[in-house]
Here is the input.
Amino acid sequence: QVQLVESGGGLVQAGDSLRLSCTASVRTFTTYVIGWFRQTPGKEREFVAAIKWSGRRSQYADSIKDRFTISRDNAENTVYLQMNSLKPEDTAVYYCARRMTAYYSGTSYGLSSDYDYWGQGTQVTVSA
Here is the structure.
């Protein structure tokens, strides 16, 4: 059973930074694409960023490009999302998830239906 645990959320002001962490319970985490999604009430879950199992490729949503950076430390079974220059519209619950298919070599990272294991989410609130 794969468990993903997010941490690092909180209440910050516009322009501040936060770093979210996603830690997995199993070693095989290192062979999967890991993604970050976010969701606000009444809206669908939105893709934020994802990183290849090797760490050599990442994708970002246009809305956060140049402000957020995804990285991973496979030795620690952890993926990070560094969020800078936060805006009120970044307020959401942030989820990390594991994409299906070990050693996935394709380029499709943005569909939530392609992810099979999800964390419980961490709230990020950005005040104006």
Observations:
- The mean pLDDT is 95.
- The longest strand covers residues 92-99.
